[in-house]
Amino acid sequence: METMMSVLVGILVTVATYLILSKSLLRVILGTAIMSHAVHLLIMIMGGFSRDSSAPLLGEEAASYTDALPQALILTAIVISFGVTSFFLVLAYRTYKELKTDDLTKLRGHDNDE
Amino acid sequence: MYTLNIAIVIPFIVALFIPLLYKKFGRVHTGWFVLAVPVALFIYLAQFIPSIARGEVYFSEVPWIPSLGINFAAYLDGLSLILALLITGVGSLVVLYSIYYLSKERESLGHFYVYLLMFMGAMLGVVLSDNLMVLYLFWELTSISSFLLIAYWYHRRQSRYGAQKSMLITVTGGIGMLAGFIMLSTMTGTNSIREIIATIGQYTDHTLFIPAMLLVLLGAFTKSAQFPFHIWLPDAMEAPTPVSAYLHSATMVKAGIYLVARFTPVFGGDAVWFWVVSIVGLVTLFWGSFTAIRQTDLKALLAYSTISQLGLIMSLLGLGSAALYFDEATEATAYYSLAIFTALFHLINHSTFKGALFMVVGIVDHETGTRDIRKLGGLMTIMPITFTLAVIGSFAMAGLPPFNGFLSKEMFFTSTLRASELSFFSMETWGLMFPVVAWVASVLTFVYCMILVFKTFFGNYQPEKLEKKAHEAPLGMLIPPVILASLVVAFFFFPNIIGEYLIQPGYGAILPTFMEANLPDYDIAPWHGINTELLMTLGVVGFGIVLYRLWPSWSGIYALFPAKFSLDSLYNHTLMSVERRSTSLTNRYMTGNMYHYMVYIFIVIIVVVTGAIAYTGAFRFDPSNDAPISIYEAFIAVVMALTAIAIPFAKSRLTAILLNGVLGYLLALFFVFFRAPDLALTQLVVETVSASLFLLCFYFLPEWEKEKRKRKIKGINAIIALSVGTLVTMLALSVQSNRLFDSISAFYENAYELAGAQNIVNAILGDFRAFDTMLEVVVLLIAGIGVYVLIKLKANKGGRDVENK
Fold first, then answer.
1. B35, B162, B529, B650: which has the fewest Cβ within 10 Å?
2. What is the mean pLDDT of chain A?
């Protein structure tokens, strides 16, 4: 299970990296979104996986619970990446509106900026 | 009790008040206020002459940073006293001269005297400091104040160029010197020069001994304009003439000489020191005098002559260090120490006649409007006093009687002849080189001295080429050079007074063991009978006159040294090419294209992390503890992988967004498998909101276009992406196979007892680690504000200008 998930994380990271390296701003943002999926999944599998343990709810009265700490970390991470992604999106929207392009090779600052 | 320390600080304190005096008493030339400082210091220092001559020394220390062994330690002995008297004495005369030289109306005198006083204090600090680090501090202060003084007329391009050049060269040397000082300090465990001299004997075999020596010499050579670092001095002639007279003849360039003299007891007696100092000195002596002849600008001629004379003093210090080769102080070993004695004597002499000559040139410049030899001539009858001063200065420099230069030049010949008798440092083979080079350089010196006098004051007066009508200088401007010229003559007739009261103690400071043994008691006399030295001098005069007469016929020799191959052009070329290359290098990798930066980042990650894994052998793959895979999980994982792979190939933006949404929901499903209900819930909600946001924004964004890149670049991107992905997988696998200790999560299972919560995840978020949550809320808040502002704010042209409302 863990091995399979590790490979899955690798695939997600590959796709995300490829998108981040592209020319269009949209693809880059999509790439960062996928990258955060991959990272959340990675944190999850680092916490370990066991079929016998139950969800971290004490009411279950189970013998063992899954590790709650990575879950708390991921929850925080999800919310933060959501905030950042939404800000990114609006930034891209403004960029396109003002500059009429989303081609990153053209977004290189003004010539007289130096 | 701290009077010495106070004496060093006084110029700085007075400098603080100069702008005030300049503003408040604008009608009086500010120089008059300044004049009191060097005069008072000179009188104060002169009081020490008798007691220093008796062999006493003065030391006082003010703690500064005791924990680092850095203390403001002032130390006065014979050597320091000579330099300190030169600094204050010539300083007084230069200030007096500058009062008449610099116009009250046209010049910014406040600046000038602040810089000058700063320089004077720094210079006193250099010669009076006993602590290495404090010495370095004052050393750099002289560089900085000299930089400011050279660029005093900062609206001239040449001034700024000269100031920058001198700054770069002297500071480079200064930093080398600091490194040498640090080595000395680590070697001996003390920062005090006196203590280093006392204990250095144990460290001569230390590995740092030679590097420290060479680095200290680097500092001394750059400061004293020794070959090949002499190139800054001629360009520093863009400074006002009082500055050139003070800094570039009498004081700052002597700082390197002082340093070599001061460290002779530390490093002297070593063959490397002997050869480096002597050879560099001789080369500088020859090259300076050779180049001075071709100059057409009087100040440039004097600059090269200064270089040459400094080379002379330097070579003497090198030769004299041979006396320390022997452990014992006897008549026989002291025989070689005459060179040290001569060096100090010539040091004083040079300050007198070169100071006077600079002032003379300044007068000529001031009263005729030019310093170009080709335009000058026939000034003898128009400026008789200036002419007399020039003759005295030049003849002293050429080494003619009855001026002090004659004495030191004779002694210089004696020293080189004695050095050639040395039977160590492989002097048997090379010894004869010293008197030969000395003699040739003296002939050349004679030639340029004659050029200086005869081309300027004899010949035809050419008023049409001059900017002003030439006339004699005002009295105030003549007094300082007259005083210096009288000293030039006085030293010839009464050399033993300064010999006994100044040079002998200075000699004692450099060679203390010989001083204690009362060896040798040098007597300076103008007449030794007919000996080799006298014949050499006669030869100098004879050949000098012949060469001067035939000057036009052999001037072609300088065509062998075209400006293209000079050290100056080497310096300029190096500076320019370094700048050009670093610019082009920076432009090459700082493209402004985000893609390139991302590629750098990913490649660095790949190389560094892969390298670290390979180097430590950290990669492990151990699936034995893996939980078995159920059919559902496998199915979802495959779907998720396929969805992700499909995104880059998506035809429309809608497909891409939806595929991303699918990814998010599948992730939520995985959270279910992993028994994380809160995560699954959050992920579902967040993914839904994100997807709608994406859709909302994409509506306004351009059509999702196919990636238009070259196949090759796409290939490179794919390789990078694959490597990053593989790397992450490898890391994940290795981490799972290397569990070193148990999780701390068992503690959180006490959530009910500790926090009254049954949901452990919520207890962690809201209780155990609530700080994270609080700040995460802040992140959301900031993102929200950012989104709002980005949409609302229209500070751009066309829109409402909110910024200026």
1. B529
2. 85
% of residues, chain B, pLDDT over 90: 34
Nearest-CA distance A113 → chain B (Å): 11
The verdict on B636 touching A (C-beta cutoff 8 Å) is no
User: Token pair 């999944």 is at which residue?
Assistant: A41
Shortest Cα–Cα distance, A79 to chain B (Å): 7
**B273-285 residues labelled b (16+ CB within 10 A) or e (exposed):** bbebbbbbbbbbb
Among residues B182, B183, B39, B193, the alpha carbon closest in space to that of B126 is found at B193
pLDDT (tens digit per residue) in B213-227? 999 999 999 999 998
| Closest CA of chain B from A29, distance in Å | 10
Q: Could you count the other beta carbons within 10 Å of the beta carbon of residue B120?
A: 31
Are the beta carbons of B268 and B324 closer than 8 angstroms?
A: yes
The pLDDT mean for chain B works out to 86
As for the ipTM of the complex, it is 0.93
Contact A65 B782 (CB under 8 A): no
The per-residue DSSP string of B325-363 comes to GSSS--HHHHGGGHHHHHHHHHHHHHHHHHHHHHHHHHH
Do the Cβ atoms of A66 and B765 come within 8 Å?
no
N- to C-terminal Cα distance for chain B?
66
Contact at CB, B743 and A84, closer than 8 angstroms: no
Q: How many residues does chain A have?
A: 114
Q: B628 to chain A: nearest residue by CA? A: A1
Instruction: Considering only residues B409 and B698, tell me which one the structure prediction assigns the higher pLDDT.
Output: B409
CB pairs under 8 A between A and B: 268
pLDDT at A110 over 70: no
